[in-house]
Structures are given as structure tokens and as C-alpha cells.
């Protein structure tokens, strides 16, 4: 092998080494990119705007793939989770679906509606009444005229509780001697129109509104003669 041939072999070997180095560099860049991006997962993006409290359907979303590390912890990756759900607020086109954007649809029967009223926390509501409970609603009213006795009335029987909110501090109220601070709990019921009017009236005009928890499977009915109570008529 003469010197020219030796130089050719050396150049060929150098070319092979450079090619291997370049290939290794490309693999390193790819592996580095993969390590930064991580595995991809499924997410769902809104095709159009969705109005608040609108029932959700799979046709409103498009399936996309994106790196898992870029998704927030509450991102929805299973589209079946929207079954029986409604939008909490306006959902904008192009937004990724998050679990805090959706809530369960109201558990209402035909003719029912959701009604929420504030109940004084001091009446024993806190910790005792939960969504799904049935309660009787009592209200106390002052006499219509001066000297008339105060009355306690059963406003609604067997009211289904849909939701129990957080205890909220009320504005100071006066009992004629001092300012008092109170706390109330928002309670949401499923009621027909008449019962909704009754609890709304009681919340606005009654001195007190109290909930009585009905035992599971128990009878929530109250005879007509027992729906109004006056201390003077107590036997």
C-alpha cells in the first residue's frame, strides 16, 4: 500500500468517525428533548364556547395529545367524566377541560327547581345535614297584631337537600340591647313551585327558620292539625 492509498484509508476512517459522532450527537439531542417533554397523554379541548349550566356532551370537545408534564393536575383526561355534568361558568373555545369547570347536573324531577336559602348555623345544621338528606322546614312568626301569640309552623315536609354550602359570617344584627354576629349556611333544596315559595317567604319574613332532619326511610309527613303550634294551645 503506497502513501496515497494510506491517506485515503485514513480519510475514510476519519469520515466514518465523524459520521458516528454526528449520529451520536443527534441521538443525544433527541433523548434530551424526550426527557424534557416526557410522555404524552390525552386531553380534551373545547370546540366552541359553552354557556354556564349547559349540559355537556362529547361532541363539544376534541381529543388532543400533549406532554403530561404540561397538564395541570385537575385536567380531564377521561371524557366519560363529563357524563351527567354541566358547565360551572362560561367555557371558552380552545380551553382545556379542567375538573373544576364542571359540576353534577341538578338532581331534579320534572316540576322541581333548585332553591337556596340561608339557614342560621346556630339552629344545629352544621355537620348534621348533608346532600341527599330529607328535612322538614320549620319557621317561627310573630303575631299579626300586637298581643297576638307567636306561632311555629311547618312550612315544608320531606324537602330534599341538594347541597350544603360553607358557613358564612353574617352582618351584625341587633336584638335591641347589643350588636350580635351570626353565621349562616346556604342550603340548596329540590322543591316544587309552591314549596319554593314557602321557604323563600319564610327566609324573608320568619323570625327563625329551622331544619329538622328526617331519619332515612322515615315518614316526613306532619298531620294538618300539627303544622301550626302556639304555646297557649299546648295541652
Strand content is 25-35%
Domain unit count: 2
Compressed to H and E, one letter per element, the order equals HEEEEEEEEEEEHEE
Secondary-structure-derived class:
alpha+beta
Number of helices: 2
Helix content: 10-25%
| First and last CA, distance | 129 Å
Shape: rod-shaped
Major beta sheet, specifics? 7 strands, antiparallel
Record field, number of beta strands: 13
The average pLDDT score comes to 79
Q: State Rg.
A: 34 Å
The stretches of 5 or more residues where confidence is low (pLDDT under 50) are 175-180
Explain what the structure shows.
This protein is an alpha+beta fold and 235 residues long. It folds into two domains: 64 residues, Type Iii Antifreeze Protein Isoform Hplc 12; 121 residues, no CATH class. The chain contains two helices and 13 strands; from the N terminus they run αβββββββββββαββ. The strands form four sheets. Strands 5, 6, 7, 8, 11, 12 and 13 form a seven-stranded antiparallel sheet that branches. A two-stranded antiparallel ribbon has the order 1-2. A hairpin with a 4-residue loop joins strand 9 and strand 10.
List keywords for this structure.
about 240 residues, Type Iii Antifreeze Protein Isoform Hplc 12, 7-stranded antiparallel beta sheet, two-stranded antiparallel ribbon, about 20% helix
Amino acid at each position: 500500500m503506497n502513501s496515497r492509498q494510506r491517506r485515503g484509508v485514513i480519510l475514510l476512517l476519519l469520515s466514518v468517525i465523524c459520521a458516528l459522532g454526528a449520529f451520536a450527537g443527534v441521538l443525544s439531542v433527541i433523548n434530551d428533548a424526550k426527557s424534557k417533554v416526557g410522555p404524552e397523554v390525552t386531553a380534551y379541548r373545547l370546540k366552541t364556547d359553552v354557556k354556564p349550566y349547559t349540559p355537556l356532551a362529547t361532541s363539544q370537545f376534541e381529543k388532543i395529545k400533549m406532554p403530561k408534564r404540561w397538564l395541570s393536575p385537575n385536567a380531564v383526561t377521561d371524557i366519560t367524566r363529563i357524563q351527567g355534568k354541566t358547565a360551572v361558568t362560561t367555557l371558552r373555545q380552545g380551553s382545556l377541560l379542567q375538573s373544576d369547570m364542571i359540576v353534577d347536573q341538578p338532581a331534579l324531577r320534572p316540576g322541581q327547581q333548585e332553591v337556596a336559602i340561608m339557614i342560621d348555623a346556630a339552629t344545629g345544621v352544621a355537620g348534621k345535614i348533608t346532600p341527599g338528606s330529607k328535612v322538614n322546614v320549620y319557621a317561627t312568626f310573630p303575631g299579626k297584631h300586637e298581643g297576638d301569640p307567636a306561632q311555629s309552623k311547618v312550612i315544608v315536609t320531606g324537602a330534599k337537600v341538594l347541597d350544603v354550602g360553607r358557613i358564612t359570617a353574617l352582618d351584625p344584627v341587633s336584638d335591641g340591647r347589643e350588636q350580635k354576629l351570626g353565621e349562616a349556611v346556604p342550603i340548596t333544596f329540590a322543591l316544587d313551585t309552591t314549596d319554593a315559595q314557602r321557604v323563600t317567604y319564610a327566609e324573608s319574613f320568619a323570625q327563625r327558620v329551622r331544619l329538622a332532619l328526617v331519619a332515612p326511610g322515615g315518614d316526613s309527613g306532619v298531620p294538618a292539625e300539627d303544622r301550626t303550634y302556639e304555646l297557649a294551645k299546648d295541652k
